[in-house]
């Protein structure tokens, strides 16, 4: 097919300013690179933090935002198979992981590629140097030769698929790391902090893992309603309760002990502090959502005298993308994943979508770049 010379894209030119729709060049493909036409790009809380410059220690303007996406291959420079050993051709819908370098200590010896210091992350900028199209808020995206890719089943909703490529693959990775300090057991009480996309995906995963009872804390009410429909045994609105009141509720559910496992998907430093406080002696804390640059106030005695174990997780490899896709396909009749996608916006309304998400009026808005 004949390809255009440019791609319409929403670019963050300057922090604390609206995104600007621009035309970015479509580059020549390197060997094993691909060009995809974006089918859906969902927004993440990271996107509005980035817009405000909160992550300027890492992001670089101008930024083509969007790190949750799926698209259809329109050009392929010699890549033959995906990570699941299936043939790749033009017309296939795919997702792809960040391109880890594959050569450093973390990629090779430690076998922890999400710690790779040389990765080229999508949606973090800059987009004024080749290959330009490295964010989801664009008509087209460039898949680097070193990216691992996966074909996506035609039956899966592209907006839901896009949401898995950050929020859910991160949760899948986190639950894998949880095994290092103790997986969920059937008698255990699990408390999830946050009822945004990460919290909801963590809830679904905890339900499937067979947790004894699951409590979700968060706000606003509409998100908590989704959590109840997805299987939360109890929800607690943080806008109408204090941390001490929430702690007493959890003690009342656990014979005074506290939660066996707290999963922090919320973001603020105060949530991590509360998570450590709310678990029982020798309880576990799984940290997924921390994004607050402010330090949390926690006594070190929680980790020796109380013996709390904490483990965190960042991003995910293509194996975690695979796990997320398999989960939404296998459990599509158990969880209404589409209910998380609260609105679909055209590209020229992306600033409205970001504003609504920041006001917590959206759970996971999606951008329909190509009509």
Explain how this protein is built.
With 371 residues, the protein is α/β, with parallel strands linked by helices. It folds into two domains: 6-157 and 341-368, Alpha-Beta Complex (Quinone Oxidoreductase, Chain A, domain 1); 170-312, NAD(P)-binding Rossmann-like Domain (Rossmann fold), CATH 3.40.50. It has helices at residues 45-51, 105-108, 158-178, 197-208, 221-229, 243-253, 269-278, 301-304, 318-330, 350-358, and strands at 6-12, 20-25, 34-42, 63-64, 69-76, 93-96, 140-143, 149-151, 189-193, 213-218, 234-237, 259-264, 279-287, 309-312, 344-346, 366-368. Strands 3, 5, 6, 7, 8, 15 and 16 form a seven-stranded mixed β-sheet that branches. It has a six-stranded parallel β-sheet with strand order 11-10-9-12-13-14, sandwiched between helices. A three-stranded antiparallel β-sheet has the order 2-1-4, with no helix packed on it. A hairpin with a 7-residue loop joins strand 1 and strand 2 (20-25). Helix 3 crosses helix 4. The radius of gyration is 21 Å and the shape is globular. It starts with 5 loop residues before the first strand and ends with a strand. The mean pLDDT is 96.
């Amino acid at each position: 097919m004949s390809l255009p010379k440019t791609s319409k894209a929403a670019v963050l030119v300057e922090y604390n300013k609206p995104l600007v729709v621009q035309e970015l060049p479509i580059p020549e493909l390197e060997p094993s690179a691909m060009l995809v036409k974006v089918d859906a790009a969902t927004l993440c809380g990271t996107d509005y933090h980035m817009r405000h410059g909160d992550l300027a220690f890492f992001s670089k303007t101008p930024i083509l935002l969007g790190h949750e996406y799926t698209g259809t291959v329109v050009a392929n420079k010699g890549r033959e198979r995906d990570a699941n050993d299936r043939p790749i051709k033009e017309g296939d819908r795919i997702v792809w992981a960040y391109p880890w370098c594959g050569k450093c200590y973390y990629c090779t010896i430690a076998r922890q590629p999400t710690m790779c210091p040389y990765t080229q992350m999508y949606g973090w900028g800059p987009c004024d140097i080749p290959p330009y199209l490295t964010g989801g808020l664009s008509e087209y995206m460039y898949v680097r030769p070193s990216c691992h890719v996966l074909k996506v089943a035609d039956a899966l909703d592209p907006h839901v698929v896009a949401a898995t490529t950050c929020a859910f693959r991160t949760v899948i990775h986190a639950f894998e790391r949880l095994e290092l300090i103790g997986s969920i057991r059937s008698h255990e009480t699990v408390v999830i902090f946050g009822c945004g996309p990460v919290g909801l995906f963590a809830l679904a995963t905890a339900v499937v893992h067979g947790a004894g009872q699951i409590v979700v804390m968060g706000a606003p009410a509409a998100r908590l309603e989704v959590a109840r429909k997805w299987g939360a045994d109890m929800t607690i609105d943080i806008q109408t309760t204090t941390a001490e009141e929430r702690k007493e509720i959890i003690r009342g559910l656990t014979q005074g002990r506290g939660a066996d496992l707290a999963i922090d998907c919320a973001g603020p430093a105060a949530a991590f502090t509360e998570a450590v406080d709310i678990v029982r002696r020798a309880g576990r804390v799984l940290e997924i959502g921390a994004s607050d640059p402010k330090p949390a106030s926690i006594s070190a005695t929680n980790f020796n005298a109380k013996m709390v174990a904490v483990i965190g997780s960042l991003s995910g490899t293509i194996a975690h993308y695979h796990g997320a896709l398999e989960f939404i396909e296998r459990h599509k009749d158990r969880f209404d994943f589409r209910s998380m996608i609260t609105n679909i916006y055209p590209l020229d309304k992306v600033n409205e979508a970001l504003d609504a998400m920041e006001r917590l009026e959206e759970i996971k808005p999606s951008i329909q770049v190509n009509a």
